[in-house]
Amino acid sequence: MASRFERLAQECVKKKDERGEQVVISLDGKRRDRPLKDEDFVGVAPYLPAAVQSILAQTPSRSSSRAATVEFHGENNECGNLGAAAVCNALMKMKEDGVAS
Question: What is the pTM of this model?
Answer without folding.
Answer: 0.88
